[in-house]
Amino acid sequence: MYYINSLEEYERSYKKSIEEPKQFWDYIATTFYWRRKWEQTLVWNFEEPNINWFVSGKLNITENCLDRHLKDHANHLALIWEPNNPNENSITYTYAELHAAVSQFANTLKRQGVYKGDRVCLYMPMIPELLIAMLACARIGAVHSVVFGGFSAKALRERILDAGCKIVVTADAGLRGHREIPMKEIVDEATADIDIRSVIVFKRTGKPIRMQAERDVWWHDAISQVDSVCEAEEMDAEDMLFILYTSGSTGKPKGVVHTTGGFMVYTGYTFQNVFQYQSGDVFWCTADIGWVTGHSYIVYGPLLNAATVLMFEGIPTWPNPDRCWQIIDKHKVNIFYTAPTAIRSLMAHGDEWVVPYKLESLRVIGSVGEPINHEAWEWYHRLVGKNKCPLVDTWWQTETGGIMISALAGISSLKPSFAGLPLPGVQPVLLDTKGNVIEGNNEEGLLCIAFPWPAMIRTTYGEHEQCKQNYFATFPGYYFTGDGAKRDEDGYYRIIGRVDDVINVSGHRIGTAEVEDAINEHDNVVESAVVGFSHPIKGQGIYAYVICNQPPADTNQTRHEINEMVTRIIGPIARPDKIQFVNGLPKTRSGKIMRRILRKIAEGDTKNMGDTSTLLDPSVVDTIIAGNPN
Ligand code: WT7
User: Fold this and answer.
1) Is 338 close to ligand 1, i.e. is its CB under 6 Å away?
2) Which residues form the domain of 184?
3) Does residue 236 fall inside a structural domain?
4) 323 close to 295: Cβ distance less than 8 angstroms
5) Domain membership flag for residue 27
6) Does 580 sit in the ligand 1 pocket, CB within 6 Å?
7) Domain match, 485 and 540 both
8) Are 491 and 581 members of one domain?
9) Is 542 a domain residue?
10) How many distinct structural domains can be found in the chain?
11) At a CB cut-off of 8 Å and minimum separation 6, what does 195 contact?
12) Whose Cα sits closest to atom 6 in ligand 1?
């Protein structure tokens, strides 16, 4: 793998990647194993969009994650799994063991009638079998669609239907802190009225569950019937690798599609260079594999580099808020990658939970998912990184597939709350609202990307037009990120946050329209408007303004019912933090809700409401302010 080890080398690579992007990526791609070399490096346009990297190249990503390492790293640890409960034993897999487990499950999938191109839904807890199942899909050319275990049955059902999955892999239950999540029960509810060929169930807790004859099979029974030799399927570079659903500003969540060759090259390259991974290091990313961070930097990026990756089943605050520090000392973690919301929550529990731990194995720490505020940055850097570990603040998205803007650990200089400089191959630009490029430094604007990079989104599953509208139509010729950013005097980027109707709650993306649709399902609700507001731990919280048909007799009861409705339709992550009942919403004459005003009220910032003259009824604003419980 191509390794950048100095600032000069970064600058040289960056320059090369802009001047000769094809030659640049050609070279990086040759450090991987291809069954057949590509004919053209890149064929693209952002109009349709149509993006092809490594055209006609043939490969299997699992040969790069596993087989390729067997020669020198067969007995090297690929995976260390740490259970939810500290009294339970950890489990490890060497590269040879993981290779065998993946091959065996790949044969199991084939036995269940899964072929190249079929979609497989994985609704699983954070256990090694999730990673094994993903790689098994990739080995036989099936497309995995991992659905985060915190989503409700209804949300799971929609995702299974949208992707047309015929197979679901799950567990009897999942463990997170003191909670047991009845995953199989949720799968049963989600699939009650859809035709699923088989549900493969891993026994994690032993919770009694109902197995449906002819459809449900136990993981351990199924694997016992096949061997662990499985030739990898030859895939085209542009064959689909996975679908991952994410929320946008309008409508239902969309299935972001990533393809094989580009995703491999980009996650492998960025993992190595951002974290400056060195052979033998233990890398721990605390994300759930149900989000893109887990796909790129628990599964593919690390394994492509023959790294040792730590996977944790539980949560940072259970049984006590020192669980992460305990794990770091226990497994001698060298690189720790987590989210600002986790840092703020641990910070709130007090320094005394961190101080007793040595944390001397740590060399690099990282952050992802939302802007990291100064206070959290300083705390993380000082108490966890002991003022000596570089803190990489990595900006990217489900759609970008891998890290786009970040320091390279120990190489670039750090600025608290700045993601920093673009990685080689990434061409960020700031645009004004009219679409003009803002040149020069000390400027703020809408963050767009001007040129393709290998792991970029190819389409949204089954809805290519949506993909075009969402990302490529706002500013023709550019990929629009939905984020606002500032570029400082040194050209460093600071991500300000979303400029669209997406809320980032604890690093999870939630569309306001989705939450509104769920709230509106309540019998007594006429209309609602949802906005984000600053939340000390979650980054952003969810604030819902709700108009009822009949004034609620018991507002607490109605609030409770609305919360239950949202939990049932989307999942607990989308529950509003605050619900305010109102008689009207600030609308323009054309009927558009002025969310800018609702955001200000939710923040408690009501001194200057700006221009409200375009509102149909400006008095509605004062009424809402008067009724604001804050
Ligand atoms: C949105 C993407 C990328 C993995 C996790 C989230 C925000 C992400 C940062 C960061 C400031 C960040 C952006 C982005 N975001 N990382 N380092 N600094 N903001 O993936 O669910 O697709 O969300 O998360 O707003 O658009 P996602």
Assistant:
1) no
2) 60-259
3) yes
4) no
5) no
6) no
7) no
8) no
9) yes
10) 3
11) 166
12) 369
